[in-house]
Design brief:
This protein is α+β, with helices and mostly antiparallel strands. 33% of the residues lie in helices and 21% in strands. It has 13 helices and 15 strands.
């Protein structure tokens, strides 16, 4: 290519989630938790989950096929992808990327770099981020979820990644890890995990601001029209937005707008991860900002739960379907991606100003408008049955040979599902074209 590709970003998006969910209020009662512990304390309303019919491969197959169908994409126009294979379409680059909740962002950055490199051949890149978050019985189980996002990456996009404004923070930490590969369940150090998350946020935000300063751009929370975060649970995201404001306060505590918070001016970031007074003060101060810039991005997370690798991109979809297209057009979106272990990045998107009926932005937002109606068609599963389904998944994890026991009629039309695992652990899949059963289960 003789010219540098302009405005590289997201051209098309698709999001899918399981057809089954458990109500968090009912789960509180079933678990013997105090009323509001999950719904208020965590900020979660419903949690999507998969039966033994679905796995990470089926989720990714479903979301990619839907993206191809809804945007009428010719597979030969895709030159880089991370997770998909189609007969007679083998001229592609890319392999799977695995890294806790950060894998989707790593794949996205790889795709952007490919489009902006000398290796680019003019075709699109396809990024697929998917995961199934399940936990053993206990306090972490209500923070699960599942889903997948597919993103088509190329030049002249409606959602453009800001070039040269990417801040990263990586370090080793045993906050969340999976040492037992025979199990879906992780080992979690809850308190350390929160500290690592907030520390990574502090460091990424500080570095993002430094890089922006080199471009003669002053960054604070007012710079962004929307702030999106990786979402282990919704309440942590609200605290994260408050943390951004706390960072701004420490940078300029003399600003008159911070007068009511002046008693915190001598504190440091490192000593305040679990300071309840700081947390309470900045949650209150930033509540209006949160309602305007971050809460719209939490719609799917509150209804589906933590999707792990696609979490922050599910937040992007939530934002796009929660605001009018005229509000979205021309906006600046900040994103913070985090994966335990740990890896994290802060970056930003500038949305095109063109939202005419024939624009790419209009097509992207219109395609996502089906998300809310589809959420309402899910099947509510009683906590007792939800627990039994997870027990079945645990019992048969990596079992071979194996054939799933659940009913395919509980799936959305167009969903790929596992049909069998043979004695050599080879998996076979089929696509369900029937109708989802009605009513709760």
């Amino acid at each position: 290519m003789n010219t540098w590709p302009e405005n590289v970003g997201i051209i098309a998006m698709e999001l899918i989630f399981p057809s089954l969910y458990v109500d968090q209020t009912q789960l509180e009662e079933f678990d013997g938790a105090s009323k509001g512990k999950y719904t208020i304390g965590l900020g979660q309303e419903r949690m999507g989950f998969c039966s033994d019919l679905e796995d990470i491969n089926s989720l990714c197959l479903t979301v990619v096929h839907k993206l191809i169908e809804n945007y009428d994409i010719n597979l030969r126009d895709i030159g880089r992808l991370e997770l998909f294979e189609k007969e007679e379409c083998y001229d592609v680059e890319g392999v799977d990327t695995t890294n806790a909740c950060y894998g989707g962002t790593a794949a996205l950055f790889n795709a952007i770099s490919w489009v902006e490199s000398s290796a680019w051949d003019g075709r699109y890149a396809l990024v697929v981020a998917g995961d199934i978050a399940v936990y053993a019985r206990g306090s972490a189980r209500p923070t699960g979820g599942a889903g997948a996002v597919a993103m088509l990456i190329g030049p002249n996009a409606p959602l453009v990644f800001d070039r040269g404004l990417r801040a990263n923070y990586m370090r080793h930490a045993y906050d969340f890890y999976k040492p037992d590969l025979t199990s879906e369940y992780p080992f979690v150090d809850g308190k350390l995990s929160i500290q690592c998350y907030l520390s990574a946020l502090d460091n990424c935000y500080h570095l993002y601001k430094k890089k922006a300063e080199k471009k003669r751009v002053k960054v604070n929370v007012d710079y962004f029209d929307a702030m999106l975060f990786h979402t282990p649970y919704c309440k942590l995201v609200q605290k994260s937005l408050a943390r951004i404001v706390f960072n701004d306060f420490l940078t300029n505590p003399a600003d008159p707008k911070f007068e009511s918070l002046s008693s915190f001016k001598n504190l440091t970031l490192k000593e305040t991860y679990f300071n309840r007074d700081v947390e309470k003060g900045f949650l209150s101060f930033s509540n209006t900002i949160f309602e305007m810039k971050t809460k719209p991005s939490l719609f799917i997370a509150s209804q589906v739960g933590n999707m792990y690798t696609p979490s922050v991109y599910g937040g992007l979809v939530s934002l796009l379907i929660s605001k009018s297209i005229s509000e979205i057009a021309g906006s600046k979106i900040g994103l913070f991606s985090y994966g335990s272990g740990l890896a994290s990045s802060m970056f930003s998107i500038t949305v095109t100003n063109d939202y005419s009926d024939n624009s790419l932005l209009h097509k992207l937002v219109s395609n996502l408008s089906k998300v809310k109606p589809l959420l309402s068609k899910r099947i509510c599963i009683a906590p007792e049955k939800f627990s039994a389904i997870l027990d079945l998944r645990e019992k048969n994890c990596h079992k071979a040979p194996y054939e799933p026991a659940d009913d395919v009629k509980q799936l959305f039309p167009g969903t790929y599902h596992l049909t069998k695992v043979d004695e050599m652990h080879r998996r076979s899949y089929s696509r369900y074209f029937g109708n989802i059963i009605n009513g709760n289960s």
